[in-house]
Amino acid sequence: MALARSAVRLLSGRIPQVSQARGYADLSLTFAAPAQVLYNKANVKQVDVPSFSGSFGILPAHVPTLAVLRPGVVTVFENDGAQKKFFVSSGTVTINEDSSVQLLAEEAVPVDTLDVSAARELLSQAQSQLAGATTDVAKAEAQISIEVSEALVKACE
């Protein structure tokens, strides 16, 4: 144990202090989908994202991370206090040491443009698709459709 503490003390002077390397003032967000760029290196206060390890918030000086987005709502807290919410079906989020964040979504739609009845209809169709699926591939595709549709309905409500 004493050897481990000595090694930590010896190495602590050689390991760069991450908090010194990061900027705390701004979070630089790039958020895009195949057909559109929603934010291009915009300075924002915070971003909340849905991931398979659970939803989490991203603030300046967040630990560098790479995560997969699950279907759900991304909330962007802008510097002027405005909150913008987008439904994403899937994608990735990369958080870099310099407090820059890249959100790459397969689909991104403003939540306020969603139609709850259309979302419920999609869910119903996906459930019917699962009921009629005969192969493992068809069942997996139907299950993915159900997961996205359920998240879409939840985002609408």
Main attributes?
elongated, nine-stranded mixed β-sheet, mitochondrion, alpha+beta, transport, 2 domains, 36% strand, 9 strands, acetylation
Describe this structure in words.
- By secondary structure, this protein is an alpha+beta fold.
- It folds into two domains: 18-112, Sandwich (ATP Synthase, domain 1); 114-156, Single alpha-helices involved in coiled-coils or other helix-helix interfaces.
- The chain is built from four helices and nine strands, in the order ααβββββββββαα.
- The chain has helices at residues 2-12, 18-21, 116-131, 136-156; strands spanning 27-33, 36-49, 56-58, 65-69, 72-78, 83-88, 91-95, 100-105, 108-110.
- Strands 1, 2, 3, 4, 5, 6, 7, 8 and 9 form a nine-stranded mixed sheet that branches.
- Helix 3 packs antiparallel against helix 4.
- It is elongated.
- Residues 114-155 form the F1F0-ATP synthase delta subunit C-terminal domain.
- Keywords: Acetylation, ATP synthesis, CF(1), Hydrogen ion transport, Ion transport, Membrane, Mitochondrion, Mitochondrion inner membrane, Transit peptide, Transport.
- It is found in: Mitochondrion inner membrane.
